[in-house]
Amino acid sequence: MTRTTDLDTLLTDALGGRLTWRLIAAASGATSCDVAQVTDTTRAVAPGSLFVCVVGQRHDGHDFAAGAVEAGAVAVVVQRALDVPVPQIVVADSRRALGLLCAAQAGPTMAIVSTASVVTTATVTGLFLAASSYFRSERIQQTFVLIDRNTPE
Questions:
Q1: Rounded Cα gap, residues 70 and 63, in angstroms
Q2: Terminal CA-to-CA distance of the chain, rounded, Å?
Q3: How many CA atoms lie within 13 A of 67 on its CB side?
Q4: CA distances (Å), origin 126, targets 109, 114, 119
Q5: What does residue 103 show for φ and ψ, rounded to 5 degrees?
Q6: Is 136 a residue whose pLDDT tops 60?
Q7: pTM of the shown model
Q8: pLDDT higher than 70, residue 139
Q9: Is the dihedral of CA 66, 47, 153, 114 positive or negative?
Q10: What pLDDT was estimated at residue 143?
Q11: Residue 26 has pLDDT above 80, yes or no
């Protein structure tokens, strides 16, 4: 189930008081939209995405913003204004904004990495969280789970 969040609410919850930002209206004048997900990868952009342009060592996410909008991004987070027809959130540090936005979109998150010595603790905690209506619990059965990031996005 995809949870959508109003852009204004997401920005206030995630960035308010933590990071200075300004909103540039879309070409149509629109400044608000519903956000289904936050991503910095054009491969993951789907209709309703908020695309964050992160400047990396090899690539600049700003170069991919137009493609993200074509793929369905409803707004972009940028470090400099771009010529795209969707609302733009201008920040000084898009990488920091990405983490804050993902954390706000995902809600409270907790992970337990278990080895043989703490499987019982992980199992009991997982059962407790699954019984709670506040948390979503997922159990991964694989022995090894490879991840490419250690941040909320």
A1: 13
A2: 18
A3: 12
A4: 13, 11, 10
A5: -65, -40
A6: no
A7: 0.71
A8: no
A9: negative
A10: 41
A11: yes
Reported confidence tier of residue 62, pLDDT bands at 50, 70, 90:
very high
Q: Mind giving me the DSSP string for 9-58? A: HHHHHHHTTTS-EEEE--TTS----EESEEES-GGG--TTEEEE--B-SS
Question: Which of 106, 107, 89, 87 shows the shortest CA–CA distance to 97?
Answer: 89
For residue 91, which amino acid is it?
V
Q: Enter the tokens of residue 85.
A: 């027809």
Q: In whole angstroms, what is the distance from residue 106 CA to residue 102 CA?
A: 6
Q: Under a CB-based contact definition with an 8 Å cutoff, are residues 82 and 62 in contact?
A: yes
In angstroms, the CA 130 to CA 149 distance is 25
Token pair in block for residue 38: 């936050």
Q: Pairing mode, if any, of strands 5-6 and 34-35?
A: antiparallel
* Main-chain phi, psi angles of 79, to 5 degrees: -100, -10
| Confidence at residue 129, expressed as pLDDT on a 0 to 100 scale | 67
* 3 state DSSP class of 76: strand
